[in-house]
Specification:
The complex is a heterodimer.
Chain A lengths: L1 H19 L5 H23 L13 H28 L2 H33 L7 H22 L3 H16 L1 H11 L20 H43 L1
Chain B lengths: L1 H34 L4 H6 L2
The chains are: A mainly alpha, B mainly alpha.
């Protein structure tokens, strides 16, 4: 019972923080939509979805673990796209967008790496094992933490944008390796269960409702975070230029 | 059930912490901008 109370309080707190930082216009609408959808998704995950016959209750971690992984993949794919665009056109807006996606991607990748072991312990009997999926996912997290560290250490904006674009492109090569690792190597981690080859649906409707509402909620939260992070970076840039012009 | 609660709390606290971090960084930049004499309405335009 106390667990449910804590989760309800936490999800209300998260919704409040999302709405509080909403800004104006599209960002405001997105913050409200993501807060409402997050409330519904957590409700669907815990109360609408049926309990798995094999794994029991721990299977419900699936509804936060998989959407976090999806958002991390999406974020690092966008880092790749914006990095390529930056190297072609040298537009600093692409560098700012790549940075925002990388930072938010690291947040969600961290959640994947924490929720995975919490799920593994009751199901596999161990918190962690050095199998292909887990190891490549950890490497992916390290690559993008390295990306953020690189940006923090380089002071020259052009050099920082160029170096981090190269790392953003090379680092993305690990994403397909993470995804395909369960097929290429023998691992404890299960194969995809939502849609198998041939488009066969493997989950009952109640689990689909929970999963897709969580996927949509997490994606909206990601888009909202990236928009806010880009706006913040631009404001910081404007503040710096105002200071420089005043000193000059 | 404890594992489920732990996983959901980790996710919600993680997302909430990042949202709080963004909000407070925005508030700090707004304070710095008003201290530098940049009008607050130009801050809001960027959101």
């Amino acid at each position: 019972m106390i667990g449910y109370v804590l989760i309800v309080l936490a999800v209300i707190g998260v919704a409040g923080l999302l709405v509080q930082g909403g800004g104006k216009g599209m960002s405001r609408g997105l913050s409200i939509a993501s807060a409402v959808l997050m409330l519904f998704a957590i409700y669907a995950d815990l109360f609408i979805a049926g309990t798995d016959a094999l794994q029991g209750l721990p299977q419900r971690i699936f509804y936060v673990h998989v959407p976090s992984a999806w958002v991390a993949y999406l974020a690092f794919f966008l880092v790749f796209i914006f990095s390529v665009r930056y190297l072609i056109w040298r537009n600093m807006n692409d560098d700012i967008r790549a940075h925002a996606c990388a930072e938010v991607g690291v947040v969600f990748c961290t959640l994947v790496l924490i929720t995975g072991p919490i799920w593994a312990r009751p199901v596999w009997g161990v918190w962690w094992t050095w199998d292909a999926r887990l190891t490549t996912a950890l490497i992916l997290w390290m690559i993008y933490v390295g990306y953020l560290m690189l940006r923090a250490y380089l002071e020259d904006p052009d050099q920082r944008a160029r170096f981090s674009a190269v790392l953003g492109i090379v680092g993305f090569l690990d994403v397909p390796i993470v995804h395909m690792s369960v097929k290429w190597w023998r691992t404890l981690h299960p194969d995809p269960v939502v849609i198998r080859s041939g488009g066969m649906r493997e989950l009952p409707d109640s689990m689909h409702i929970a999963l897709w509402s969580s996927l949509l909620a997490f994606t909206l939260v990601f888009v909202y975070f990236v928009m806010r992070r880009v706006a913040l970076e631009r404001l910081q840039g404007r503040l710096e230029s105002a200071k420089v012009s005043r000193e000059g | 059930m404890n594992f489920v609660f732990a996983a959901y709390l980790v996710v919600l606290v993680g997302i909430g912490f990042y949202a709080w971090s963004l909000n407070s960084r925005f508030a700090q930049v707004k304070r710095d901008m008003s201290a530098s004499g940049i009008p607050p309405e130009s801050v809001d335009r960027d959101q």
